[in-house]
Amino acid sequence: MATMTPSTRRCSTPSLSVVAVFLMLVAPPALALHCWVCRSDNEPRCADPFDNATLSATNCSHVPLRDGEARFCSKMRSEVNGKTVYFRGCSDKEGLCPNVEHPGLCSTCKKDYCNGAERPGGDAAPRVVVVAAALVALAARLAPGGGPP
Questions:
Q1: Which of 79, 82, 123, 129 has CA atoms 20 to 30 A from the CA of 145?
Q2: CA dist list (Å): 57 to 12, 92, 106, 112
Q3: Could you confirm whether the keyword Repeat appears in this record (predicted)?
């Protein structure tokens, strides 16, 4: 019967870092879409430039829509009583903003929080940092003399 040395066991057993990296790369994003939902005539921070400091995002699965489940975040700029008003919300159709009483310039997007201000690095930045940290930890453990047996 062969015996396993600590270094053999370390190489043959997937480390927590490898599992974490794998899950980060292949796990699907959360099923519920989160969008900013507001209108600038009620909440001035909803206008452009967008300021979400006091706003909270909405889980769009809780927003009733005409034709089904929300798959898009929307942002619309419209004229209401001679003033520019911004509407941000959830939508079930690409290119369709749900506020039909005040038609205007509408855009839709598919990622969480995408109907707010642009963020440097977009949604990929947190994943890149986590993956890089996990790879550094893994490399340190696999290096000769690195990590506990």
A1: 129
A2: 44, 17, 19, 9
A3: no
